[in-house]
Amino acid sequence: MTKEPSQLYVKSDQIGPTGIFGGLSVNTQFKVALHFSGQAPENSGDESTDTLVGHLNKAGVFKHRKMTSGTDGSFDFFASEAELPGTNFDVTEQPGGFQGLLEYNATRRIYPDFNVTFYVDTDYYMIRMFEEWMNFINPIYGSKGKYIGGSGGMRGFGEEEPGAYYRLSYPRGYTGYKHDISITKFERDFFVDPNKNDGVMGRSLKQSLISYQFIDAFPKQVTAMPVSYQGSQLLQCSVTFGYTRYVTIHTPGGDNYDGERNYATRASRKPKGKVPPKNIDTGYRSPPKLDRVTGDPGPRTVPKIPKVTGDPGPRTPPKTKRSDFEPSLNNEVKKVLSRKVTKVSVDDTTAEGAAIIAQKKADYAAKMLARRESRANR
After folding, report:
1. What is the b/e burial string over 111-133, where b = at least 16 CB atoms within 10 angstroms of the residue's CB?
2. pLDDT of 43-58, one tens digit each?
């Protein structure tokens, strides 16, 4: 059915601050959270207990006054640019389903990488954070052991270790290098005095937020940072993150409802009551299978007769017997016996010879009968 065109224009009183264009979002209000909250003990080299946060602590990243791993997450505010994620499908083409048309069907969902740009502090701890994160993913090994982080950087793993090599760490779990990251988009008119201690959470939940939570994220690339004497600008570090998937958290008007409402349990997906099987009569009647020896089609199911006409419909007749074929096993046995079994070098004039010939004929007939029955039962 052809759809009618929608409204072509709006009234002048619908364009103002309270109209349809009064609630447009701006791209300058967002928050990137790396979720490095809490303190973890410094790594000791034990692969069963070493963690990503412990490695960053051992490297001295969180010891700086500007870079804390507490609940405030001060380093999160160094993010200057970010990307709200996109997604697309990998599709397959299906030609010939309809004449003259080419259909596309989705086969899998693809989550592209996302980029975040951070301001670099004068102590370069922002650069050290991502460098040490990648060192935790792919630590270097020397003659004395594995690099486990250090406040002075990778001292001792330079020209002193010409035979140093790298190994990759396990990606997931308590000791894995993958970590959740989120990007939250909000607006400027969120609440009064956001830094006020009393009732901050209550006020913040009254606004509309949209947050993208990236599951199992890790830095795939730290982009090169050019420096120049042509003019002074703020140094920025761009990082490309890979991840498994993302989930979207939306609080329209501050409605932060329980996530359990999003689940369809196994019990709710099951149909209520016993569903009768679908008996669909297509009207097709396959021809009966004929016995290879006798030509007997065997027992046949009575066709369904329509209640109105009583006509059982067209039926495929069995194959016509060949004129030179007699559906008798005895006929086949006679032919074989007359051709092969009678050529026995035994004197049939005597009673003993006639008995031997008769016995051989009976044995051969039984053998042929068993062979025919096995072929017919296949």
Report:
1. beebebbbeebeeebbbbbbbbb
2. 877 777 788 888 888 8
